[in-house]
Amino acid sequence: MKTKRILFALLLSIGLFAASCSNDDNDGETIVPIQGKYNLSQTGTIIDGKEVLIDAPQNQTGCSRDYLDLRLSNAAVIGDYNGSDCALTETTGTYARSHNDLTISVGNVSSTSDIMNLTNKELKLKDKTTGIITVYTR
């Protein structure tokens, strides 16, 4: 009988410990690293409370998709394929992440977006000024 009480107390302790560790200590912030190369997939906005996304018109038909490459050095490289020869233009700037905000700066121009979703396969951003949603995939 005594071993059953000890076993019950041990299981109860483990359960309480596991429950206390399951709280979202990061205030909703994702812990997936943001560094990586993302291909431009969709753009859109929120209309009547619903996301409306379309295939990104910025992607040149017949070319590789435009991309955003966020490097460990905090460099942000934006790749844009254009024209019938799919010429690649790369623009380099910097990025900074603060909680669920991502700020990308190129020259004197900066834009800050909410990170709506960040997984191993997707980065979804919503521009804080324009409300435009941009979806990138890996």
UniProtKB/TrEMBL annotation:
Signal peptide limits: 1-18
Species for this entry: Flavobacterium azizsancarii
Keyword annotations: Signal
Domain Lipocalin-like: 34-125
Official protein name in the record: Lipocalin family protein
Keyword Signal listed: yes
Family matches, as InterPro entries: Lipocalin-like
Domain of life, per lineage: Bacteria
